[in-house]
């Protein structure tokens, strides 16, 4: 797969407001926030889409979700709640083809989404 803007952020080639990092996962604030807290969690090893993930990615995907949940808990979002979103391909609204989890919190979310 080709490189993306998130690959450049992971390699520190372009700036981002990084809020969390471990060996496998990087998290930074979305440039165009849709909620008071809007953070993107990305695996450092790129997977283009959720559809492209395979069983060999199971551990990494688990780490990605658990890192997201732990951050939300640390930031005090868990009790009131938050939303996580993974957009996949065109109808999902995916624009950056490096799998990422959107963490949205700090306001009431509504369902169904638009
Ligand atoms: P998606 O549409 O699910 O692929 O989400 C891509 C997200 O990346 C959007 O919410 C954008 O606002 C966000 N985004 C794009 N470029 C950057 C960037 N350089 N730094 C932070 N967030 C970005």
Automatic annotation (TrEMBL):
PROSITE patterns linked to this entry: HIT_1, HIT_2
* Highest taxon, organism lineage: Bacteria
Q: Where are the transmembrane segments?
A: none
Q: List, for all copies, the residue spans of the domain called HIT.
A: 5-114
Q: Spell out the coiled coil positions from the record.
A: none
Where in the sequence is the active site? 100 (tele-amp-histidine intermediate)
Motif residue range(s): Histidine triad motif? 98-102
- Single GO term (MF): catalytic activity
Q: Which InterPro entries match?
A: Histidine_triad_CS, Histidine_triad_HIT, HIT-like, HIT-like_sf
Xref: Pfam families: HIT
Q: What protein is this chain from?
A: Histidine triad nucleotide-binding protein
Q: Which organism is it from?
A: Dyella jiangningensis
Classification from the root reads: Bacteria, Pseudomonadati, Pseudomonadota, Gammaproteobacteria, Lysobacterales
């Amino acid at each position: 797969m080709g490189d993306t803007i998130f690959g450049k952020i992971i390699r520190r080639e372009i700036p981002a407001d990084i809020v969390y990092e471990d060996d496998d996962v990087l998290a930074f604030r979305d440039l165009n926030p849709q909620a008071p807290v809007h953070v993107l969690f990305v695996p450092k090893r790129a997977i283009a889409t959720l559809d492209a993930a395979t069983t060999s990615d199971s551990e990494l995907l688990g780490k990605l979700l658990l890192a997201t949940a732990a951050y939300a808990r640390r930031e005090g979002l868990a009790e009131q709640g938050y939303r996580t979103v993974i957009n996949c391909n065109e109808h999902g609204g995916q624009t950056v083809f490096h799998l990422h989890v959107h963490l949205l919190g700090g306001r009431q979310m509504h369902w169904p989404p638009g």
